[in-house]
Amino acid sequence: MLLELQRPLVFLDFESTGLDTGNDRIVELAFVRLLPDGRRESLVRPVNPGVAAMSKGATKVTGIHTNDACGLFGDNGKKPAQPLRKLGPELIAFLGDSDIAGFNQIAYDIPLWLAECKRHGIAFDMKGRHQVDVKVLFNVCEKAWDRFLMGPRNLSAAVRHYCGREHEGAHSAEADTQATVDVLLAQLKRHPDLPRNVKDLADFCARNSDRERDDDAGRGRTGSALA
Questions:
Q1: Is residue 1 part of a domain?
Q2: 224 falls within a domain
Q3: Most exposed residue of 30, 63, 113, 160, measured as fewest CB within 10 angstroms of its CB?
Q4: What does the alpha-carbon distance between residue 134 and residue 2 come to, in Å, rounded to a whole number?
């Protein structure tokens, strides 16, 4: 495998009630654990957000309405959604001592996850974990990307660009997470100058994420989980 793993790397993706990482709630999550031997293990769960309402923007993107979220997958023989606090032990056990990856996870998924963990009393700590953000790699590696001709640098564009296919099931947590794994492996194949181990790759992402935030602040631009 192109990526050197000393321990599992868990890719995560959340569908949520909106884009406010401090106040919005998770309604669906997917964790995909990439093991050192290249195997993948997945955990996908609907989440009952409680009283939080889905924003119109989130519903437009995900197709999930407030009533759907509060009883998500409760019919058709599928496991009903549970509050995040009840899922906490299962999620923490799956994460173990893994490093973390995702698409736009430094700016969005991890802040949302940490806020939800605090809200629900879930004992999760980022200390000692490396973060690999596939969107940061996309931004850094594709300097010539023309947004007007090629569209926004979102996950669907990354799948098309790196994997040569359309992103089926976009904005489904499971499909997004599996696609993010595929994109990262394709990025490493296309760009041999990228670090091969998780620690150096995470350091690369952290440096360039900081630079992007500084550049965006200078231009008065804000990020988006959907960008």
A1: no
A2: no
A3: 63
A4: 15
DSSP 113-165: HHHHHHHHT-----TT--EEEHHHHHHHH-TT--HHHH----HHHHIIIIISS
Domain count, the chain: 1
Tokens 């994420």 correspond to: 209
pLDDT digits (tens, 9 = 90+) for 130-189: 999 999 999 999 999 999 999 999 999 999 999 999 999 888 899 999 999 999 999 999
Displacement of CA 111 from its chain's centroid (Å): 11
pLDDT value for 50: 80
Rounded (10°) CA dihedral 212, 196, 15, 95: -130
pLDDT tens digits, 3-57: 999 999 999 999 988 888 998 999 999 999 999 999 999 999 999 888 655 555 5
Indicate the angle between helix axes 134-141 and 173-190, nearest 10 degrees.
40
DSSP state of 68: H
Answer yes or no: is 3 within a domain: no
Element (H, E) at 190: helix 173-190
In a domain, 39, yes or no: yes
* Amino acid code (one letter) for 98: S
The domain that holds 55 is classified in CATH as 3.30.420.10
